[in-house]
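Example 3.2
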Amino acid sequence: MSPLTTIGEPGCEYKSQNSRVPGKVAAVGDDKSGRYRYGEVTGSFTIAEILHQPQLWPTSVERVQSARKALPQLTPRKAIVTGAGTSAYVASAIAASLKAGAAIPTTELLSASRDDLDRAVPEFGDGGVLVSIARSGNSPESMAVVDRLGAMYPSVRHLAITCNAEGQLARRPGVQALLLDPRTNDQSLAMTSSFSNLTLAGLSLAHSDQLAAAMDTVCNRAAEVLPNLRKVADELASTAPSRVVILASGSLLALGSEAALKILEMTGGQTVALPESFLGLRHGPMSFLRSNALVLCVASSDPLKRRYEEDLLQELRKKNLGRIVAIAESDFAPGSVDVYAPPIAPNLPDFLRTPFEIPLAQLLAYSLSIRLGLDPDNPSPDGVITRVVQSFRLHEDAAGV
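Structure, written as tokens:
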């Protein structure tokens, strides 16, 4: 096992200079893994995992900083960041912050030919790096892709960022495993804390100093606004929207995709969610909207993007399309927004904001699930979807890889 798997052992606690960051965010009792649970109520794992994120964010940055000298360099045109499902959106958020490579889901790498990959990342085969993202590290694609690309490209290095020290990926020979705090290994079906911390660790590969400098401010802000975000989510869920659109721009698009997936997962598909860019909405997807649909907007921190976003919301208001909720301060799109939700990291560049602005969507998905009579910890009791994707047949291609 790589020595990286010993970096940042459990017990690494964040010592804030400001006492407003609580050690346990409104939680009652610990489970055997040291995770914070509420009382034995429906969705107790999920809500605890959402609300303890500010405590865990600094540990993810710290673990990357501690391992920095041992980590492979992500040089231009030579890196692929990969994962499946939520982990694929993590990969997209990470790749959007890098000049070094591309995000390609494991679900694509599993069947991609060498020609496909050489076109997508031309210099990957010449000493490149495959960065695998995984909560459990036990999904069928995770190991198969490592094996397949290892056979195709013997000189490629393999780095795994994972929440599970006991997973197959973390224990695989030839894979450097950067382990996150075990409390990030969400026990509920849907990934929440796992998503934000895997994203944050990946962003820290190239931006750890900037993120470390922001941790006190971001975590204090999160502790302040999370109770308000929970109230906003409860109120939005009380209207029982059957359609939700999540709008974002640029490097925040992965957040929109993850938000839509959380709503779909936790409501068992009963609430349909569509991620789209602000400017892309006009090109067909606007037909999805109705007057009673929910439009969740993640406002950019970039002034030019914000002007385009505000214009789009003015158009929706004129057309009476959707109830508009903005993760933004109240000076964003005045007269067009119905509900403002306070942002957690408004002063960071967009490519670093994804892990910090996802909690409202997670809380909304949780509240919608409860309102529909489901258990957010397991919103698919009939097994249509599972916490870890079940094994399926893996095919060899003509080259035997």
